[in-house]
């Protein structure tokens, strides 16, 4: 079997890797693989929905590492934390809700013997921790706390069996920070994160453990990993790319490096050194996934010895949807050995999920009781408590008075129903009737005015009845859509409201495709913040792709939106 594995590696490195493995070769690789690991930025734990077990099972991995869970401990549900057949380990953001967060799900057959949250060791107790922190004297305690407070790393340590030898394997599930150009302090934060991660990984290697670092690196390493590298001259100057180049060993260098070299290897490029268009992240705003206009920023990095000796395959899964990222997987020939009991970090031990009885005081917040002031002048002027009490009293009194008025109105309404009058049977007119002037004696026709002034009480009743009848007939014509007059009244009403409430202007058509554009709004800070513009509605892609978006752009004129 070992000779077969060696031949497979030779075949893989001789081919161009622009195609997927053949079914025969895939069967050989699958027969040598005993361990599968997957990383996936899920862009929110809700990606799994209610079928989290089905989603994990479909990935077919022993260890599944997810990033950007966007869940804090107070929002973590039992259905998400406790999955049948798996143990889970979470790291939460401690400063912002719905931000960052990572989680590692291990099959019961791959239960780790140690687990830890964060990179610095400040968030974990000594019991069940991974240890091996290295020399952190270059960081202050405050810096270490800030680096771990965003919930960006979970470390699990496993036992694996390779060539009849048992050794430790440490899996660092990490979500790298993004350097916001509008926030210079985040650039230094990202550089510190790189430094701390490398320090921890090298300390683990020196401690005798194999190491895998996987997750969303938030940086594309080479130009081949990016859809648009138009600025080729300055492409390598990015701090993240410079760190990756120093941290990783290229395929050419790895063949010449000594066996004990501590450099890490990008496992995808180990098996696919020249494959283009292998992207793992696409913009959802521009629909770039349809044209494969993306970047490869999700990686499985392994120490050189582990990658060269134990990895048998690695690839991406762009067909899996549900997030703006796709999963990345790797397979190893070594076997995972399960621990008999999960380490203390496992979510199954959290009090809210452990099924242990808890005190009621845990869920209650003690509020200091304050008595109402006896005299108005004794209360503090302008206090929030006083204003709230005053408003509550007003609302209470207003409610009582309102109920009294409501009961009086109901009684008056019941009396009015018993004594029906001609005026009460008057039908409702259209909304435009409320904008017409009321008819008075001065505005009545001359013959009606004379009748009103000279008529007796009986005559007044007859004229009033005639007016009510005429009004009802007019209202009937207005509301009856079958009558020509009804159609004209309805059309006049529509014209009136269209003149008052005009809708947005129709979008222009792009020049290249002649299709209606889409409306966008500038959300980036600057002089154009909030301004609207039209662009081609097609997904973003290369200029050479006729199915991709054209370069049409037009600002929305003021007063047109």
Q: How would you describe the overall organization of this protein?
A:
The structure is a single chain. With 561 residues, this protein is of the alpha+beta class. It has 15 helices and 18 strands. Strands 5, 6, 7, 8, 9, 12 and 15 form a seven-stranded mixed β-sheet that branches. The chain has a six-stranded mixed β-sheet with strand order 3-4-2-1-14-13. The protein has a three-stranded antiparallel β-sheet with strand order 16-17-18, with no helix packed on it. Residues 1-30, 367-396, 421-425 and 447-461 have low confidence and may be disordered.
Choose one word for the global shape: globular
Biggest sheet descriptor: 7 strands, mixed
User: What structural category do the secondary elements indicate?
Assistant: alpha+beta
Weakly predicted, low-confidence segments: 1-30, 367-396, 421-425, 447-461
